[in-house]
Design a protein that fits this description.
Number of strands: 15
Number of domains: 1
Strand content: 25-35%
Distance between the termini: 35 Å
CATH superfamily: Creatinase/methionine aminopeptidase superfamily
Order of helices and strands: HHEEEEEHHEEEEEEEEEE
Helix content: 25-40%
Largest sheet: 5 strands, antiparallel
Strand order of the largest sheet: 8-7-9-14-15
Number of helices: 4
Shape: globular
Structural class: alpha+beta
CATH architecture: Alpha-Beta Complex
CATH class: Alpha Beta
CATH topology: Creatine Amidinohydrolase
């Protein structure tokens, strides 16, 4: 069921997502060669709790897997999503790392992701990040009352395809609110004009996951990788649907 949030609920959503945006901003200065993904994890867990939130991913459960162990997901290079932080995974010059953050506060959730360059990266990797960010921007532009979910999907998928890249199979955006994952599911490709109609007060997490070499994915426990080992990037914002441009509530406001 798709829920419409009232202003009191939206204020709680803004607060949870403020913490997400703050954390993603601060991580930008920490991502550098020689840093382990566990160091990012520890910083994230501490900041979320200091701000009065709870890490939404830590302990998250799906059938057939142990509870997710991290406060953040850290997906390096061919990692698409759900990478598990590790002391052994040390960032190297030229890597890219997608960091996905979830926060729960006062009964409501925030969720966003960003892919960072580790030092100087290749032109190929730089272009991938640019395309994925632009795909997110185009998807967000369609998230207004009166449009349909398919308009978001088509904007993302058609742009990615036009640039010669691939959206990762079966990985989607989603509604968000009192639960981390709510209806509706938001595919990153598909026909325009299809799916549920968007209404003012809906809250959505829109998140293109874009691969260089193939749409095919390989699962290894929690973690998803590009099947051919090529690079993947992930950008995500949580938004409130309005009559006009969406309100992006995971933006860092300084």
């Amino acid at each position: 069921m798709i829920t419409i949030k009232n202003e009191h609920e939206l204020q709680k959503m803004r607060e949870a997502n403020r913490i997400v945006g703050l954390l993603l901003h601060k991580l930008g200065s920490m991502v550098k060669p020689g840093v382990s993904t566990m160091e990012l994890e520890r910083f994230a867990d501490h900041l979320i709790r200091t701000e009065g939130g709870t890490p939404a991913f830590k302990g998250y459960q799906v059938p057939g897997l142990p509870p997710f162990p991290g406060a953040i997901c850290t997906s390096v290079n061919a990692g698409i999503v759900h990478g598990i932080p590790s002391k052994q995974q040390i960032l190297q010059e030229g890597d890219i790392i997608g960091v996905d953050v979830g926060v729960q506060k006062d009964g409501f959730y925030g969720d966003a992701a960003r892919t960072y360059a580790v030092g100087s990266i290749s032109p190929e990797a730089e272009k991938l990040l640019e395309v994925t960010q632009e795909a997110l921007r185009l998807g967000l532009a369609q998230a207004k009352a009166g449009n349909r979910i398919g308009d978001i999907s088509h904007a993302i998928g058609s742009f990615v395809k036009s640039k010669g890249y691939f959206v990762a199979d079966d990985l989607t955006g989603h509604g968000i609110g009192r639960h981390l994952h709510e209806d509706p599911m938001i595919p990153n490709a598909g026909p325009a004009g299809k799916g549920p109609r968007l209404r003012k007060g809906m809250t959505l997490a829109i998140e293109p996951m874009v691969n260089i070499g193939t749409c095919s994915v390989m699962e290894r426990g929690w973690e998803f990788f590009v099947a051919d080992g090529s690079l993947s990037a992930h950008f995500e914002h949580t938004i409130i649907v309005t009559e006009n441009e969406p309100e992006i509530i995971t933006l860092y406001k300084g």
